[in-house]
Amino acid sequence: MPDGGHFQLGQSFPALVLNADFRPLSYFPLSVWAWQDAVKAVFLDRVSVLSEYETVVHSPRVTMRLPSVIALKDYIPAARRPAFTRFNVFLRDSFECQYCGQGRPTPELTFDHVIPRSRGGRTTWDNVITACGPCNLRKGNKLPRECRMFPRQVPRQPTSWELQENGRSFPPNYLHESWRDYLYWDSELES
Ligand SMILES: [Zn+2]
């Protein structure tokens, strides 16, 4: 059990997980492990500990501070081609309607086929875009030139790197101060 000044039941002490190149394994969702998994990985010698919480855990033989930032010892290469999923389409488009440019919470976002399915459009990276409800309704089954609605960016398959970069702009709900050095290079230098 964790022990220390402020441990409360239910507190999770997540560890930020970095790849062997010291960049987060993923930005969005941010790669974090529960403390139990982080501690186990330390004992299996699969990760290096870069930063720790004040809080310690005891086992009968060992006392250790909970890791707050860990780095994998073996590099995991990013998938070269990102999966074509609803979430990744939103992420590619930075959660913004590609017609009016408004950012909205995910539940209010929809998908639009630039060339409607009824007109032969396919469900692919280069024909599906993020749209808000009103724009989607307005566009309906029309071709872009019929309603003068053109996507702000020509849709295409993003690289994994592009998706990761987009993910960086969405700060996670939980952010321990020891994580900042590994997440926000530019903002840290400016503040
Ligand atoms: Zn819109």
UniProtKB/TrEMBL annotation:
Pfam family, one: HNH_5
Domain HNH nuclease positions: 84-137
GO molecular-function terms, A-Z: endonuclease activity
Keywords, comma-separated and alphabetical: Endonuclease, Hydrolase, Nuclease
Keyword Hydrolase: yes
Taxonomic superkingdom: Bacteria
Record protein name field: HNH endonuclease
Organism: Falsiroseomonas tokyonensis
